User: Fold this.
Amino acid sequence: MLRIHFTGVDLARVRMAGRPDALWETILSFHRLRDRRDARLFGEWRTETRSRLNSETRLLGALIPSRGYFPDFLTPVEGQYGWDVGLDALRGIRSERMRRELALLGAGTGVGAAFGMPSAVSGGADVSVPRRLRDFMEGGTKHLPRLLGELRGYHRAAVEPYWTHIQAQIEAERAARGRALLDGGADELLASLPPMLRWRAPVLECDYPVDRDVRLRGRGLLLQPSFFCRRTAVTLHDPELPPVLVYPAAAQLASASATGESIRPLEEQRQRTLGKLVGHTRSVVLRAIGDGATTSELARRAGVSLASASQHACVMREAGLVTTLRRGNAVLHTVTPLGAALLKGGAVAS
Assistant:
């Protein structure tokens, strides 16, 4: 169980990430690539990604085990501002921090040891460390160019082609949480998070591989929804780093449950269904969504029936222009980056 303890100051400093974090998505997608579960959602993505991978990933494999701890330095806080900014921060990592986190990875290679639990190896015996990881530990920052190269190559194959889709899912998540914040403040926001996160004021609980308490101490918490995060939330190991909680975006979970479709490049989805999107009415409906609207609000704003609003939203969702997220007994429609671009250019109007 993970327990995050809030003070009144922390509640006032809870914030939602403004965009998906490219480094978190890249690292977590590497877990999904090696995981055989969720084939309905990730099956085609795995096949397509492996077919595009023509670069070395063995170092990534050593640094990101299938289960348990991976070094905090792989997901610097600066990554929330974009891929290039995150890579620059990773490039500037201090040698002593890198060695410390790599030693933690090498000493445990498991969740328990990474979080301070007793290691299976005791009595000062040598710990068996994979050769690539040992070489990286001994070489320190001189191996950073190779790591950055592997990250770039993997990101281009596994994440970049799907980035617009990922952005749409995170935008939908932000819209839903934003409504909760406006309706009831930070307390309602935390209570509205996906079911694996349980708000029992002043503690946010989450199922977790180990028992751990995180005390925010007035620093607040960054909530980072993620497309590739699954089943449980993830947080940094080092308690002195800025607190962040990465959790599965509800829109992604709902989409997988409702449609069973595998993640695909959004451009491919658009080409398959954009031909359905014609006429003045749908242009009006798309514009009426604004910063987010339920089906009832959409019908009222666009001046159409409830059934018509639902049908138009469905077609636009298939075309990649709208994302829909269930919230309670209602659904919330938001415009994707592609839909916003079409509206800005007037490309939808007939």
User: Anything to note?
Assistant: The mean pLDDT is 83. The first helix runs from residue 8 to 12.
